Amino acid sequence: MIRAWLALAALSALPSALAAQQGNSSTPAGVVAPAADSVGPFERPDGTHLRAGTSTFRLTLQRDGRSTPLGTRTVDVGESQLGGTTVWVIAERREGTVVPTSDSLWLTRTELSPERWVASIDRTKMAASFSKDSMFGAIQSYEGRASFSSAVAPGALITPGMTERVVELLPLHVGYHALATLLLLDSGTPRTLPAELIVEREERVHAGGGDVDAWVVLLRAGSIEERLWVSKSDRRVVRTEQHSSTGVVVGEAI
Hints:
Low-confidence stretches: 1-37
Mean pLDDT: 83
Distance between the termini: 18 Å
Number of strands: 14
Number of helices: 2
Oligomer: single chain
């Protein structure tokens, strides 16, 4: 997968598993992170402002001046019913690779709190449910079935699709700096990881067939670093980059 902390990457021993993705990347020259005392609290935005729609990204691995196609990643956001209540569903799928993957996360409409999560990679499947501060689930693979449970910090970011939609709704500006929490499934065991969200700079980037003015948002959690380019005109993620031990995985909106 294109994100080190995406659960699907932890469901198998594929090269894109978590350990293979936690590469060390450096902050671009000229970028100065805000001082520690400028860190603000991360508050999940009002989910009623979330927008239904579809985003598709062309994925490439860039290394040593060469680009290797990695297929496409599509994120669908829509409304659904869960227990008689209207909720959001953020569904992701990756195609054009040897092993297709899919991932769906149900969130409450206003608070964007996770309620249900299902994911698959090849024949390995995962399903989980959430309470206010806990997660319960099971993983089914060729090795058998294993269940898990864990505490989950309120406000934790669960999947890449969820994170991108949340970031699009934040009050972004150069110098924005907030603390957040990521959820990881490490060898089938869920755990949370402290993270930072930092708007590093403004930048004009080519995406979706044209040039776009965007904020560059750094998501950092330990050795995990990913950058999101958020269009200033329509508040949409138009580019992603993640550094890994094998190169830079780039997602470009199409």
